[in-house]
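User: quick one - fold this with iron/sulfur cluster bound?
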Amino acid sequence: MAVLISGTTKKTMNVMAKPVGPACNIDCDYCYYLSKEGLLDYDKKCKPKMEGDLLEKFIKSYIEQQNSNEIVFHWQGGEPTLLGVAYFREVIRLQKKYTPKGVRVENNLQTNGTLLNDEWARFLAKHHFLVGISIDGPELYHNAYRTNKAGRGTFNQTMKGLEALKRHNVSFATLTCVNNLTGSNPVEIYRFLRDVVGSTQMQFIPIVEPKSFAKTAPQHWRSEEVLFDGMPELDPRHPDSVVESWCVSAEQWGQFLCGVFDEWFSNDIGLINVPYFEACVETWMGRVNPLCTLAPMCGKGLAIEANGDVFACDHYVYPEYKLGNIQTSDLDEMQFSPVQEQFGRAKEASLPSQCRKCDYQFACFGECPKNRFIQTLEGEPGLNYLCRGWNRFFKHIDPYIALIVRSMGYEVHKQINSQAMRIQL
Ligand code: SF4
Ligand code: SF4
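Assistant: Sure. Structure tokens for the protein plus iron/sulfur cluster:
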């Protein structure tokens, strides 16, 4: 984001790097990224890999084209650990080469954990990586969809990787996909992550994909896919559902968030960080939600593929949303381009009137536009598939969040303070 502060424009970027493209050693049923292999025309015979001059160019531009004193690299996939420790040693070497004095560089790595061992863990600890580890809950839930290429569950390998991280005191957060199974078992999932995994930072992601997701970009859905809120075909269990069977339903999503919230509120405030809840506390204070999905604006997190192609967002890696390639365009030009700005502003500008009138617009902003594929009962398109779930959750937590805000000595402001909004937009 470019913000004018005391006469200088502060330029910060957040780019999700996919150095191995969509390649992965496992084969999760609900993965939204594996299908990019066909979409992005990678040569099936050669595995995509960002290396050599291209890797150096990315690292150099990402550091030089920001003027912040803290730069965070986000490594994701596919499965980035397929590249091996030596690849990331080279990443660290290049980062050191280009980082000016006084600037701190950090690295976040998102992984399925199955390839992690002591060598990896020593390296990650030494270079202070924050590791996001994907784990869906106890074995039964994890193995339901997170399977290897032979169709066998990966729970034991993920737990082994996790143990390696713990042995070497690597900082980690958990990322849990909320799907049609986990969605109905919030407390069991939460307690497992807290008591067995030992997670103190828990990210939950709703799994939502229309059946056409592999080929059809968001906002390019066919009109017959855009159903009215409440229609039975929006339920993933319906035989003619428009969403994949493994998706969480809107009702389950609300139930899941409320269940986790109650457990967290009763026992773990200040001990466990659940970004959704922490973000709500900020939002109830009148601040802009720090999570892009619930903020007024998109567009601050580009995605870069292994071949240097840059896209508007990790969830918009489709030809329609390609901004360019770093071999021919500068990263900052793409990040701050009019097209990307329009993409960002469209999040608020395209809200249907149901969201504009909603008591919780300040906290939700219609959630992620990739999930806005239903229409309101009045027939207006652009409503979020998860709306009923979000609404239930916000209503449920409202008095408790207000209590937390007041106990911290702040007033409750259920609308974003206008200055914070100006900076955001
Ligand atoms: S499209 Fe979704 S994930 Fe991407 S920036 Fe917008 S809200 Fe965030
Ligand atoms: S809860 Fe529903 S109506 Fe309210 S802002 Fe979110 S998506 Fe829109």
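One thing worth noting: Confidence is low (pLDDT under 50) at residues 1-7.
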